[in-house]
Structure formats: C-alpha cells, structure tokens
Queue: 2 jobs
Job 1
Amino acid sequence: MENLEYKTKNAWLTLDKREVMDFGESYKQFISAYKTEREVVSFVRNEAEKLGFKDLFGDDYTGGDFFAVDDDKSIFVFKRGKKEISSGLNIVVAHIDSPRIDLKQNPLYEKFEIALLKTHYYGGIKKYQWATLPLALHGVVMLKNGEKLEFAIGEAPDDPVLIISDLLPHLGRKQIEKPAKNVIEGEALDPIIGTIPVEEEDKVNVKKAILSLLNERFGIVEEDFISSELTLVPAGGARDVGMDRGAITAYGHDDKICAYTAFRALTDSEIPEKSSLIMLMDKEEIGSEGTSGSQSEFLEYVIERYLKTNGLNNVSVRDVFFNSFALSADVNAAVDPLYPDVFEEQNSAKFGHGIVVTKFTGSGGKFGASDASAELVFAIRTLFNGKNIPWQIGELGKVDIGGGGTIAKYLAKRGIETIDVGPALLSMHAPYEIASKADLYASYLAYKAFLNSTLTLKK
Ligand code: MN
Ligand code: MN
C-alpha cells in the first residue's frame, strides 16, 4: 500500500558515513581558516584560478568559465553549460559575511592603565555571548603611504588573543537582574589590546606603548585606523562535537557552510546542461546593502559583460533572469532540545534530517518573505526525491515568535525563480554555531543535483 503520511528520516541512515565524515574534514579546514568575507573571496579566487577559471574583468578573458570579484568582498563563479545562457542559469547564492564585532574608526583608548579598543558589532548577535571569549583580530588597514595591510592575529597556537572582560559574579548582583540584551551593553564590547606601559614624567601610558608596538610591527599610525576594516571573531578552529563526531562547531557556519558546499558542488561537477553561477555575497547580515551586497547591480553588470565578451549581442540580461532558477542557500534553525517552545515541531527542521527547503521566510504574517510558488517547490521536491537526497521542509520558528529573511527576495525581484534551501543549525549567530555533518553533506549533494538539473515549472 502507498505510504500516505509525510515523514522525514535521519540522514545518517541513508548517507554513506565514510563520505560524510571525509567531506566534514575538508569543510573543517575551510571554516577554520577563512573567517571574513575578504578571506573567503581570496580562497575561492585562488581555487578557481587553479581550476582554470578566468577573471571576467582580466585582459586574458576571451569567453567561457569565469570568476568575478566585487570589491574583494563578494565573488561569482560561473561554469558554462551545454545550452546557451539565454535558456537561463542555475544559480546558488550564499553569503560569506557572518555576525562579528567590528572596530570603530577611532578605536584605541586607555583606562586604568589598560588599553582597549572601541567596537560596533555587526549583524544580529547576543552581546553577552561575546565576553570572556578568546578573540582574533582580522582585517585590512589602508596605511598613510597607500599600502594595503592585511593580517590576522590570534589564530596561530602561540598568537596572543584579545578578550572582552565581564563582571565577576560577586559584584554582578545588579547586572544579572538586567534583561539579557543589556547584560553586556553595546559600548561595553571593548576588548583588551595591551597592559604594558611606557613611562612618562609623572605617569605611565599604555596606549602609547601599543601605538609604538603597532608602528614597529605593521607601520600603523593612529590615523590609519580610520581607513581600516578590522574585525573581531572567535579565535581558533572548528571542532567535532559529540563522542560520535556527528556534528561540527565553528564560527560562521552561517553562511559559509552554504558557500563552501555550493562552490564544491560547482567545481566537482562535469559540464552541466544549463550554465551554473555561484554568487558568494557580502553584507547579508546587515540587509544586503552596499556595493558588495545582493541589492547591488553587480549581477547585472557581470551578465552584461559575459554577453558582450561572448558575442551574445541579441540576448538581454532580462532574458537570462526570467529563464533562471536560484537556490538561496542559507541556513535555517533546527529544533533545539533545550528550547523546543519557540518551534512548531511539525513544520520545523530537525537536526540531521538533511537539507531544509523553506518556502517562505519573513515574520508576522510572512512579512518580507519572497515566498516560492507551489510549482517551484514541486520542481525542487521532485528533483531531490529523484536523487535520494535527504531533505525536509522547514519554517523558522512558531508564528509570531520572531523570524528572519535571506537573500532570496533580492534575486526573486529580478524575475529569477528563487527558493531557500540550506542546512539547519543549532545556536545560529552564536560565536560557535553547530552543524550536523550529515546535513553538511546533504547540502553538497543537493546543490550539485540542482546545478546539474534542467528544472521547468508545471503550468
Ligand atoms: Mn544567513
Ligand atoms: Mn545570519
């Protein structure tokens, strides 16, 4: 008799455990090493170059496969299919920025003979999670002489780290009564950068000591901070979680888990029927704004450029968009056994049950959702079932309990058929997020299946 009920299965029961574990190892290396959008861009660019992709904006680009970099913060990778681009693209879009703590433009100060850095957090964080945590400083500084300095301190095992202090419980009676959003205030997210002073006539000066250290080591003067992008992220690499090593905890799964699996899916594939485009975007965590965010017209510029260079003068950018499909590859939330109350279980993603298809995001009456059509959900459902890919339907939390958005709507507004598809995490946006290795591998398989598909929408 036909199975009438919808039920999902734990993906560990159907996937090849060896393949899952091996893929997890390569992902751990990536996620441990590349923590900012600029670092991911340089990784992807190097890998793409090694594989023979050409810079779309380079002098030696004459057509075919390419990568295209925007502001060093977002990158596209394109693989030409057997069909011409006028029949549309299969696009996987992910974001490579993650919540973090940025330095202010004039950050350095000293108080009680301790030198600290003023910060302004980036994206949606629970501020209390970031205190008393070893932090690494990553970023770029445009020096006075025009030189661009790039560095990371705190990642090598013998590197020093920065750290934000917190009040001892003995003196924290008032603090602990505050709402969690105020336990650590935004202006109290300042990490310690130094404690050894230089001696002056009648006092000591730690700030001056740090300035001369920065100058000796990097050639930095204080004004250089103004033209810098320096960022604090959790120090150290990814770790396996559990005695069975079934999960990975790391900084920035959201959304580098999708960026990595999408890129691997594209580069591990043979020549697809339709052309593939991977878009790895910046600024999603602050609304996809700016020149490197998904609301910018870099996508239009890239397609125009491709059409021109490849002699496709009779094809318009809109011809391409309206024939294209996109997966908005972003993470969802898995039901947390410690906090089941915010989830409506029947429609929430389960950890380890494969990649999550999310028809709509948004909040409070689906506000701000892209909302993929039933026809598109049908096409994706049929594709994943046909390839035995572990997948599940998911919604972000109970009605009216909160919500969130993704890049999906910015592609959809261009006429591209778009749907959210990504793995579900525990502790999303925490300094260390948790992902299932089975869901990681299922995501890779899902993006690969999509990039090699020729979807049509049933009328
Ligand atoms: Mn995300
Ligand atoms: Mn996010």
Job 2
Amino acid sequence: MLFYAEAGVDEAIGDQPVDRTVAPKATPLAKAQPAQAAAPAATAPAALASRQAQPVGPAILSAQAAETAATTAARACNTIAELEAAIKAFDGCALKATATNTVIARGTPNAPLMIVGEAPGRDEDAQGLPFVGESGQLLDKMLKAIGRDESNTYISNLLFWRPPGNRDPSSEEIVACRPFIERLIELVQPKVIVCTGKFSTGTLLGTTQGITRVRGRWHEYKRGDIAVPAMPMLHPAYLLRQPGVKREAWRDMLELAAKLGELGI
Ligand code: URA
C-alpha cells in the first residue's frame, strides 16, 4: 500500500486487482466465442506484441476525430456558458469516464488575468472546481500577495477531467481538450495569461524548453488575431514538493504584478 501511495495512486479503478502479466483463463464466455478462445494461451511476448501493434492506427485516428469534434463544438460556442455546456457534453476525452466531475473554471469570466493550470486533481474532481486543493490554496495565497483574487482573476486548466492518480496528461488528452481551452481564452479575452507548469506552458506557448528555463520570462500567447502577454510559472504543486524554489516563484509574482500595474489592470 505504501508503494502505491508513494507512487501517487490514491484510488482503484476496479473492485479487484487484476494481474495483467498472467494470460487470462478461458471463461464460459470465452468458450462461447471459439475464435477468441481458440487462440493458444498466448506466450507473454506474443501477447505483448499484439497489444502494442494493434492500437496504433485506431488510437491516432480517434485522437484526430476527438480533436475535430472538439474544434467543431468549441467554435460553435459564442458565450462562456455555451462553451461550458459543450465541454460537459463532450465525450471525446477518455478521462471523462473515470472522472466524477467536469472541472472548467472559477473566478470572474472576462477578468483581466487568466491562469491556466494542468488538470484537476482529487479535490478538484470531487468539488467540480479548479485549484481548490492544497496547490490551489497556495495559488490563492500567491495571488492574494499581489492583490489578486477571484474577483479579478479567472482560473482554468488545460484538461477538464482528472487523470487517474494525478498522472501526467497524455498527448491524446491534451489534443482532445485543447480546442476548448483555446476557445475559452478567446471568450474570456484576458489581458495577461499565466501558464502554471510544463504542460500548460508547452501546449499554449509552444515552447519546448523546460519550465525551469522559461519561467518568469514574458512570452506571447498567439492564436489568429489574438496576442496576449503570457508568463510561464512553476506549478504550485511543484512548489509544495520543492519549497526551496518558492523564492523564484515570488520573483515571478512580482514580475506579474509589475505587468498588471503597467497595463493599469
Ligand atoms: N493542479 C492543476 O494544474 N489544476 C488544478 O485544478 C489542481 C491542481
């Protein structure tokens, strides 16, 4: 159990553990389907090879289909409320199946400052709101230190459903959710964007450099006619794990405060 806890696994998907290294025994159902049951108890390497070979085509196609569906749905929305409804109705991201809630945003729509994090965690999934757990509380404290709160900030995430066990988002999940966060940015029309963490930064700002290199420097979020100053920052969850880097985060907050002051917002 300690091993699982330390690895970040905090819930089981099924009621019973499944040992996937063992070839499945023939079941009454398998007997009723001779084509499948007839396959010899596959040796482990053969089973692995077939598992790896099969999904490649369909998985890429379905990611493309999901992206297309998300793009069409997002473009059809003209208000934040419509977009929220479209995200909740979207079935193209596999994370939805294991999530309790769709988590979209908190704060003030049309606020001048928009924060884009990575994905909901356990508390966010339970409450249906972004950044309400421990890292969200730290984020709120950091924002408060420069005079920001929900009344002048809008907070969202790159993904709208929790990755199980808080694992990293997959590229398929990012591709499926990206059209929605891009449309949300268009509708919120922030004057300044903060991307917390490497996934939000890499996806929205197109940088391939590590977050520790790009943090604290002004970038531009560019899509079509939109160009918004954007600052990559260390993710608050990282600051909780590495309190020694809070000094850098504070420097970035001061830089953000200066930009907001410069813009008079
Ligand atoms: N981490 C994030 O990136 N977003 C949340 O909403 C919570 C934790």
